[in-house]
Design goal:
The chain is α/β, with parallel strands linked by helices and about 325 residues long. The chain has one domain: Aldolase class I (TIM Barrel, Alpha-Beta Barrel). It contains 11 helices and 12 strands. Strands 1-4-5-8-9-10-11-12 form an 8-stranded parallel barrel, surrounded by 9 helices. Strands 6-7 form a two-stranded antiparallel sheet. The mean pLDDT is about 95. The structure holds ligand PBG.
């Protein structure tokens, strides 16, 4: 609880704001590179970086370039990188078979990173949208996203990623029962120490737009994701999702998007005491970058301020496209 300050002038709250040294001393939350997970987009080819227009400063990287990024992350003190594939259009099918191919883009990237930078944690995304002809996270049968059949496919996908050497699996699909099914399958396959960071409180958000451009799922998406992602109006439901995923064996949980859902972050941390992450998603990044690009905001300032808000809201870490930029800035002191 906030203390009741002594009456003025005994308390002058500006005393501790007077100099940079005093402000440093009393700073309550600190951003560190160690709090960051860096999401990167992977594409086929070699030596290539293909800019994503709606995400200035972010590009789809060929695997050799992803390995460079992984080295950079490790050098900057960023503990983890998270991979998202841009699948070639002819490998996007209704049956999504590419999703669990041992040699798909993600799995090749995992192996390449673990071979070159073994100390870096590699996180993946588990959902069918980068492989699905219709852009959905699950199988579509007669216009419906079917749950249980999708979970079976997601388990295959997660196992292939674990086999390739992923440290953290990130189911982002919002199907029911996926965490329990994945956890059981990992145990049975001997992958006892592969962690699950569940996208537990994932809202049906407009802020994913630029990401869907980046993985090439946006233009393909038929309809919306409201039958599986949470209504932005619902807080109780989000907390129920988190409770359920932890009970099924998630090691860590995520709230997504980030900034418009800081109340959910705080509630999750207070209620569950579990490792809690926020995803500062593509649209949040795009918003800040667009304003900074127009000279309307100071990019560095709003980057740091936005990331600090997650710490204040109780998050242990943040997935953010700003990861290398903010880590460089923190490193430069
Ligand atoms: C796929 C997935 C999405 C994001 C991460 N994994 C998009 C979606 O659910 O449509 C969004 C990330 C971002 O916007 O940065 N299931």
């Amino acid at each position: 609880m906030p203390r009741t300050p002594a009456p003025f002038p005994a308390a002058r709250l500006r005393r501790l704001r007077r100099t940079a040294a005093l402000r440093e001393l009393v700073q309550e939350h600190r951003l560190s590179a160690a709090d960051l997970i860096w999401p990167v987009f992977v594409r086929e080819g070699e030596g290539g970086a293909e800019p994503i227009p709606s995400m200035p400063g972010v590009a789809r990287l060929s695997i050799d370039r992803v390995v460079d990024a992984a080295r950079e992350a490790a050098d900057l003190g960023i503990p983890a990188i998270c991979l998202f594939p841009y699948t070639d259009p002819d490998r996007r099918t209704e049956d999504c078979a590419e999703a669990w191919s041992p040699d798909n883009l993600t799995n090749r990237a995992i192996r390449a990173i673990k071979a070159a930078v073994p100390e870096l944690a590699v996180m993946t995304d588990i959902a069918l949208d980068p492989y699905n002809a219709n852009g959905h996270d699950g199988f579509v049968v007669n216009g419906e996203i079917v749950n249980d059949e999708t979970v079976a496919a997601l388990v295959k996908m997660g196992l292939a990623q674990a086999e390739a050497g992923a440290d953290i699996l990130g189911p982002s699909d919002m199907m029911d029962g996926r965490i329990g099914a994945l956890r059981t399958a990992l145990e049975d396959a001997g992958h006892r120490d592969v962690a699950i960071l569940s996208y537990a409180a994932k809202f049906a958000s407009g802020f994913y737009g630029p990401f869907r451009d980046a993985v090439g799922a946006g233009a393909r998406l038929v309809g919306d994701k409201k039958t599986y992602q949470i209504d932005p109006a619902n807080r109780d439901e989000a907390l129920t999702c988190v409770a359920r995923d932890l009970a099924e064996g998630a090691d860590m949980v995520m709230v997504k998007p980030g900034m418009p859902y800081l109340d959910i972050c705080r509630a999750v941390k207070d209620r569950f005491d579990a490792p809690t992450f926020a995803y500062q998603v593509s649209g949040e990044y795009a918003m800040l970058m667009a304003a900074a690009g127009n000279g309307w905001l100071d990019g560095d300032k709003v980057m740091v301020e936005s990331l600090l808000s997650f710490k204040r809201a109780g998050c242990d870490g943040v997935l953010t496209y700003f990861a290398p930029r903010v880590a460089r800035m923190l490193g430069a002191g």
